[in-house]
Amino acid sequence: MCARAEDAASAQLRYCVRTASHSATLFRCTTRDGSLVVCGSRLNPHFWDLAVSFEQACPSTMPDHMERLPTSTTPARGAEPGFTLIELLVTMVVAGILVAIAVPAFNNFVLNDRDIGQVNSLVGSLNYARSEAVKRASPTGVTVCPTADGQTCTNSTDWSGGWVVVDPNNADCTTPPCTLQSIPAMAGSNRLTGTAATGITFSSSGQASAPLTIRVCDTRGATFARSVEVNATGRVAASQKPGNSVNGTALTCP
After folding, report:
1. Which of 236, 241, 254 is CA-nearest to residue 160?
2. Whose CB among 61, 130, 137, 150 lies 3.0–4.6 Å from 204's, allowing a Cys bridge?
């Protein structure tokens, strides 16, 4: 035993630090000559770890005649990691709610991205055909039309199977037919419907043979439909708001 904090004067102690828990009291005292004294009262086995840590931190200052506190290698009760059944159930419920919210949003994201990709592809092909018509100055112009084989035009209003950009003037090509660009069918279940069965032809002046509108519809219907439109002057434009045409009128899907 060593002196308690209240007996510090008689023990020639410089100062004492008292640490208390619900079942133990530990005193760490420094004497006037610099010696370290560690003592306690009513110490329980689970409190030794706190006491020993001080001894291990300052082994050189512990006098040899002082009793070394035992080291406990057994973890305190209640320290084992793990989850309770209630915590696991709450985690599963929260995860289910997040999945229920995220899946529909992700599906809409995929469909919107597919629609925009097909619209941009159509706009790119139409502008390319117009540019080639002006550059080639072909008397027959350059045509954009739906296709079934990826090389020739098909007399149809369904553009879902892909489309081609062709120069009808075979004299402009070394190996007819003059297929300048071929776009295969897009992935997914989107349906592309045009207003002209013969496609559209751009003249050497850049003007179109007739106005053309191509509607892009997915499984969500007309509310999310988009359109690509070419006016008589050859200007190509795409609708910016789903469900509406370039001029803002409501679109319909077949």
Report:
1. 254
2. 137
User: Cβ(193)–Cβ(220) under 8 Å?
Assistant: no
Which residues have C-beta within 8 Å of that of residue 118, sequence separation ≥ 6? 186, 190, 192, 216
Q: How far apart are CA 121 and CA 112, in angstroms?
A: 14
**CATH number for the domain running over 107-238:** 3.55.40.10
Q: What are phi and psi of 30, to 5 degrees?
A: -120, 125
CA-to-CA distance for 74 and 17, rounded, in angstroms?
27
Assign 78 a pLDDT band (cuts: 50, 70, 90): low
Residue 86: CB atoms within 10 A of its CB come to: 8
- Tokens for 203, please give them: 């003249």
Tell me the pLDDT tens digit for each residue of 11-31: 444 445 555 555 555 555 555
19-29 burial string, b = 16+ CB within 10 Å, else e? Answer: eeeeebbbbbb
How distant, in Å, are the alpha carbons of 54, 127, 142, 161, 253 from that of 157? 87, 20, 18, 11, 13
Pairing mode of beta strands 212-217, 191-194: antiparallel
Cα distances (angstroms) measured from residue 51 to each of 8, 24, 103, 165 = 20, 11, 55, 86
d(CA 132, CA 40): 96
Sorted by where each begins, the domain ranges of the chain are 9-61, 107-238
Find the largest Cα–Cα distance for the chain: 120
